[in-house]
């Protein structure tokens, strides 16, 4: 074997924030040697530190400043934690407005950008011609199956449309993501830091409600047609790469599905009836999985899948099982030097099932309600600590522990296998996108007629299944928007003079809150402990946190790799082969980058200072703004 090749890509571009990759590769096979692939976050967040001592509602608007890309994602998870902790949930109209805004400002906006502007250039004609000429030649000769919808004759035409700055899909994505943000801002007031989100509801001014709904519908009509184009183009491109370029298993994370999903686009009626105190709201959360008596149903479901086994469909189990470690991260362990804020959840379940680690430490100390963020900056060492990202893990009642994945593929796979969602029929994703009679002049005529998007999520999370999952997730957002718009308009028209959206929140002496919400790149999770109407502790995991998790020894089960739990990013690189048709000394690592970018990484949620210079001293403070 030739001498191993060390590939280092730092920073990885076209992601939000600072992310690096190093991998040891066999130049003869293009494959990673002995699992030696490491991804690392080079920035620290620390928002949890200065949230303590503030009033709970402040958290909604502070955490949204974690990032200028997914600020609304954090705001929505935080507002749900506040709903619970402060004992107030919106009226149905208020929850419908939340759903309407979020479907636009994050899902449609974000997915358009990641698919066609950030991930798309890796499959563009410019890249394919230079690094994958045989695949490019086949693309020129392959007719596109869905050309009647997206308007491209060949696969090569789709690749050309993904060329940065000049490509048609690239350019239109810039335009249509603006339209999506406009639709959401009608309700939020601003994006990506929505000021209208408040505990117990939303502060949207409905004195001009008819105009608001009309303007939203106008934009939703355009975006429905646009979504058809995007999904059709990526279905054709993905199928081509699988059938002609040996790309079916590239970027595989785990041999069998291993992921979590949580709730998203909750039923306005069911969410509005969860309760008026934190114990009842928490206890009743899993009722959201039931069919609503009226109005839109909840779209996404709480789910835990471990090594191909469906363990639970319970939000409560998902919360009790959640741990977070820092063995390979630049933090001090807090478990032996702090006291727990709570040993149980709001209904008396012992966190982490009452289990202990090998040192006799109660694992509930590693639950986010009990975590304390204590930074410990140092030079990276891949045999010790090497990332600012912490290590989310799940622990089950039998003592098994594992790393896991989250994202659009995961949540769509979850609802497909449970078959309890309005977007599922006969075990597959089935979403009808309606006819658009007044088609935007810059979109192909095929985007006008109704089209039923059908997709059976594969059991393997790969580069292309994650990309296709993101595209189909756009259809779920469009479905949600139409469903909630019809419902919200009906409710509003019944009481235009004084529409009810929000309930007043309480000021408890003690309470707990948790908000876990499905967002573009995964599941955003926020935990809050309230004492005397003050935040005693606050912890949150960005949607990317579990996916970019560094490896550690907190693993127990047959899925462990040499005794280690390895995060999804690193697994996707380990299971990717470099297929560039150039000599190894000219490899760029596009296949690795495709695998990582397919997750839509957002690292700024994890960072706001960096270590620079040979001596690794703290030299520069980065203000909390998005650095995408």
UniProtKB/TrEMBL annotation:
Keywords: Iron, Magnesium, Metal-binding, Nickel, Oxidoreductase. Its cofactor is Ni(2+); Fe cation. Fe cation binds at residues 70, 605. It is found in: Cell envelope. GO terms for molecular function: ferredoxin hydrogenase activity; nickel cation binding. Pfam families: NiFeSe_Hases (PF00374). Ni(2+) binds at residues 67, 70, 602. Signal peptide: none annotated. Mg(2+) binds at residues 48, 608. InterPro entries: Ni-dep_hyd_lsu, Ni-dep_hyd_lsu_Ni_BS, NiFe-Hase_large, NiFe/NiFeSe_hydrgnase_LSU. Belongs to the [NiFe]/[NiFeSe] hydrogenase large subunit family. This is Membrane-bound NiFe hydrogenase. The lineage of its organism: Archaea, Thermoproteota, Thermoprotei, Sulfolobales, Sulfolobaceae. The gene is hydL.
């Amino acid at each position: 074997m030739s001498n191993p090749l060390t590939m280092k890509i730092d920073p990885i571009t076209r992601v939000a924030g600072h992310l690096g990759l190093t991998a040891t590769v066999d130049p003869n096979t293009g494959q990673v040697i002995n699992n030696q692939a490491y991804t690392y976050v080079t920035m620290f967040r620390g928002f949890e530190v200065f949230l303590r001592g503030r009033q709970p509602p402040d958290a909604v608007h502070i955490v949204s400043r974690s990032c200028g890309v997914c600020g609304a994602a954090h705001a929505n998870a935080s507002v749900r934690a506040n709903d619970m902790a402060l004992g107030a949930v919106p009226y149905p109209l208020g929850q419908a407005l939340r759903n309407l805004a979020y479907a636009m400002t994050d899902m449609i906006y974000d997915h358009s950008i990641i698919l066609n502007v950030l991930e798309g250039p890796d499959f563009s004609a410019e890249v394919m011609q230079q690094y994958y000429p045989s695949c490019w030649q086949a693309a020129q000769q392959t007719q596109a199956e869905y050309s009647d919808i997206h308007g491209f004759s060949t696969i090569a035409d789709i690749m050309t449309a993904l060329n940065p700055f000049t490509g048609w899909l690239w350019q239109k994505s810039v335009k249509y993501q603006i339209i999506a943000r406009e639709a959401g801002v009608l309700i939020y007031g601003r994006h990506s830091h929505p000021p209208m989100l408040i505990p117990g509801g939303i502060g949207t001014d409905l004195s001009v409600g008819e105009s608001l709904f009309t303007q939203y519908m106008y934009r939703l009509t355009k975006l429905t047609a646009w979504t058809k184009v995007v999904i059709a183009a990526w279905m054709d491109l993905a199928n081509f790469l699988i059938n002609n370029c040996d790309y079916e298993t590239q970027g595989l994370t785990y041999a069998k599905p291993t992921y979590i999903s949580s709730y998203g686009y909750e039923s306005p009626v069911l969410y509005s009836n969860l309760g008026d105190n934190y114990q009842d709201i928490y206890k009743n959360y899993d009722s959201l999985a039931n069919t609503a008596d009226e109005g839109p149903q909840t779209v996404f479901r709480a789910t835990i899948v471990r090594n191909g086994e469906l363990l639970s469909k319970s939000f409560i189990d998902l919360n009790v099982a959640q741990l977070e470690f820092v063995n390979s991260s630049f933090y001090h362990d807090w478990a032996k030097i702090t006291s727990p804020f709570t040993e149980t959840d709001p209904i008396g379940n012992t966190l982490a099932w009452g289990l202990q680690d090998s040192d006799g430490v109660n694992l509930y100390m590693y639950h986010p309600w009990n975590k304390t963020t204590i930074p410990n900056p140092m030079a990276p060492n891949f045999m010790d600590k090497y990332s600012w990202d912490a290590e989310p893990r799940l622990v089950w009642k039998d003592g098994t522990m594992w790393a896991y994945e989250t994202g659009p593929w995961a949540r769509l796979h979850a609802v497909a296998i449970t078959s309890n969602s309005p977007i599922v029929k006969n075990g597959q994703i089935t979403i009808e996108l309606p006819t658009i009679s007044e088609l935007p002049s810059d979109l192909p005529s095929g985007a006008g007629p109704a089209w039923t998007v059908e997709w059976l999520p594969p059991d393997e999370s790969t580069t292309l299944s994650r990309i296709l999952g993101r595209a189909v997730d756009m259809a779920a957002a469009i479905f949600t928007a139409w469903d909630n718009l019809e419902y919200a308009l009906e409710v509003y028209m019944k009481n235009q003079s004084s529409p009810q959206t929000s309930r007043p929140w309480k000021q408890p002496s003690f309470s707990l809150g948790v908000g876990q919400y499905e967002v573009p790149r995964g599941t955003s999770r926020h935990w809050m402990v309230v004492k005397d109407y003050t935040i005693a502790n606050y912890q949150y995991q960005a949607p990317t946190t579990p996916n970019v998790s560094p490896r550690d020894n907190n693993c127990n089960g047959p899925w462990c790799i040499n005794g280690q739990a390895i995060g999804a990013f690193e697994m996707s690189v380990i299971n990717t082969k470099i297929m560039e048709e150039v000599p190894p000394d000219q490899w760029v690592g596009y296949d690795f980058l495709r695998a990582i970018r397919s997750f839509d990484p957002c690292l700024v949620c994890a960072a706001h200072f960096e270590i620079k210079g040979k001596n690794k001293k703290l030299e520069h403070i980065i203000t909390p703004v998005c650095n995408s």
